[in-house]
Input
Amino acid sequence: MKIQSPWPVKPFLVIATFAVGIALPQYIPQWYNWRIFEWATVPAVVDFQPRARAAEPLQEEAERLRPDSVPVKPNSSRIHDPTATMDHFYASLLKTERLQNGAVTRILHYGDSPTTADLITADVRGLIQQRFGDAGHGAYLIAKPWAWYAHRGVDVSASGWKMDPATLKGQKDGHYGLGGVSFIGQTGAQSEIKLKKPGHTKLTLSYFGQPGGGEVKIMAGDVEVATLNTELPEPGDAEETWPVPPEAQSFKIIVTRGSVRLFNVVFRKEGPGVVYDSIGLNGTWAGVLAVHINGQHWIEELKLARPDLVIINYGTNESGYRNYVETSYPKDVREIIRRVRTAVPESSVMIMSPMDRGAREPGGVIGTVTTLPKLISVQAKLAAENGCAFFNTFEAMGGPGTMGKWYMAEPRLVSADFIHPMPAGARIVGTLLYQALMDGYNSYKLRQLRHNVATAAPAAAAAAGAPGGEARP
Amino acid sequence: MLLSSTVYFVFLTGLFLLYWPLQRWRVAGLSVLLFANYFFYAKWDLFYLILIPGASFIDYLIGRGLGTAKAPWLRRTLVSLSVFMNLGILATFKYMPFFLATYAGFSQTKAPVWHWTFPLGISFYCFQSLTYTIDLYRKDGKPVRSLLTHMTAVSFFPTTLSGPITRVLALAPQLEKAGRQLSSEDGGKALFRIGLGLMKKFLIADYLAENLVNRVFDTPNLYTGMEALIGVYAYALQLYYDFSGYSDIAIGSALLLGLKLPENFNRPYLALNISEFWRRWHISLSNWLRDYLYFSLPGLRSKWKVFTYFNLFFTMLLGGLWHGASWNFVIWGALHGAALAFHHGWRSLRGNKPASANLAVRVASRLLTTHFVILAWVFFRASTLENAMEVLARIASLTVSLANISMPIAVVLLIAAIAHYLPKRVYEFSASLYIRSPFFAQAAALAALVLAIQYVAVTGAAPFLYTKF
Output
């Protein structure tokens, strides 16, 4: 009697052999690394747990399948500042808060690609200006060297400029201005900068003067603000500031004669308030500020800017080059700090670590690129050695694997390269930085209060013990 | 339960083992399949266990009514009831948040929170269910007598998430057929299709998505015009491999249970014109839109040609809106609708002559059609209208650099493009080679594929793109 198989024979044999084949590595220690099936998956077939978000079942499914998918809640984090280097900044901020004589606090934030798009910095600027007042947008490039360049509340359209970012080392003299980009234009080159909100009362243009330098016309709306002759007897950097009508929101810079070399503009309002300059260079690394940009030139630019706080927020691009991090990187960071200290010795300097940078690991989980934690520990060490404050963005946002969680979050907080935050992700980091600055500022105020009480108490006691003195409860 | 997840394949294996010994008894086999269908729905949400059987039962009764009713008014009433019920299900459980948000925007009030949203599979279920009652209304078939068969056919799990949209009247007779057997050839074909689908999804679509497409669409301004253009080409390939990969798994899964589903793709980027493109891309949806929407619109037999053009445009506009309630999809649908209407007019002007046999004309037609489709995909993929304009502006910047196109990306792109254009006989030869191989070789090939997915592909079980719609 022929026994008939209850299953189609060949497909059954294929499936059975396949099942045995993929289950086998679990039981053979030498093959353990080749396992592709876990028995733990089987009970998931009868898992009918109710869904929290019926409208987003796919998202929930993804979270259940992936260990790196649960959005992280950021840890609280503070600025590490054992030498109280931030006190100058906090003192300036206190004056601004107390509305002392139109006190303006200026922060220069140097960063890489996220800063180029004003991500993070725009959020901090918004928050800090909301509390302490708005003293203007700050520095802005006169054209877009990268399509990615964008500042919140400002837009620029330009034509006719030859643009040389410091990253590409296009100018042999190393002069790139405060913003890190040199713009050369002939007659007819022009830029139109539009501000979303009015109220700016001063416009500063920094440029490179030289014998035979051309002429530019500055317009605020339809009003001609000035005509600037960039001709100087000796080549050198200069800047010019003009009052502009507060209602003006559109500004034009037009080359009317010859050839000019310009750097950036700065928009200011009447104080008190905070100016938060976002100075981003796409694809930059520490070597650009330390080597590509002429040291003396940058020192002069910083002197003119007179910042109260300089934030050096580099590291993402460096984290792709382990050798550089282990060899030349510390030297470059020391040189950056030396240059800043030489220019503005009284200013506070803070090293801000890069955000997490994700990378796929075997098995598909999004981890952290291996060099990043090493780079951050080097940054922390350099900050401590050189009397700088240090903000560990990486830890504040959740530490290793955060970009994996951000990538799986709904809506996504980081783009698919696991590097560039989406606006919602940038807002998280911006808020973390703002909170860290405010924590430090509040501690500073508390210290000041204690100090004042401590110094006032003996004086009060002495006053109470003195003849004719009157003790008060 | 995503069709690309381990959980799904554990489920499918269990079903295979249970179904074949029981299918020799009709009721037992159908019961197993119906249980599997509802199990599949329940994995997404237990509410489907009320919604789907309830709606299927009502459509079954309407179908029986259409089978016996003779009076035109009664037939119209019955089919209208089915249309209203199915569209009502769609409106209530899929589009209600959109309606509420639109009303809130219009009335400048806060949109109320709608908790009864069950978007997965609803569209495809409703479309499939409507094929039944509309076919019966048009007297294109006879009602399914068995309630069990009807409920099994209308909710058949492989087609639930993204099709292929299968006519109930095509599937039900297969389920009714007694003494079905799975030949070695069909079994081999089924496993080959499943393997092919997994390969398309994990090794091509997900790789391109994560390493290029998502990056370009997330942050277009970080890329040059050339890179953005390559990103858009990559998206065209990603979408094809993702969706056709899903269809392969669905078709293979059904075939493993002895059931044949319609094909959904036929090398779409080989189309000579936009009408042919829609005969090659998402064929089951194109057919559905043509048979159940376009043919139902007024003016089809009018002497005024303008009705034809308008109906083509309107059908694609609705097809666009079906993909999502946003301006992006409206523009995408309008572009395709306008192109179809234009092509229809052009063909009429030329006296409906067949396509030119001249090689240069054919190559130019293919390039033109493909590039129109690819550029329209920008609106389909972009998260917002601004995002679409950003991507197009980057392409228009004409900046050239390929710094972000690494060698592995270029290789995968090249393989994806070549594999799409390969003659069908190459695919058929590979399939027959696999089918003729001994069982252990077939199993080894599948295991090697899964290993490759584990170690080469990176993204895990990302949802198929089309389950969104």
Residues 72-107 of chain B form the longest helix (36 residues). Chain B has a mean pLDDT of 90.
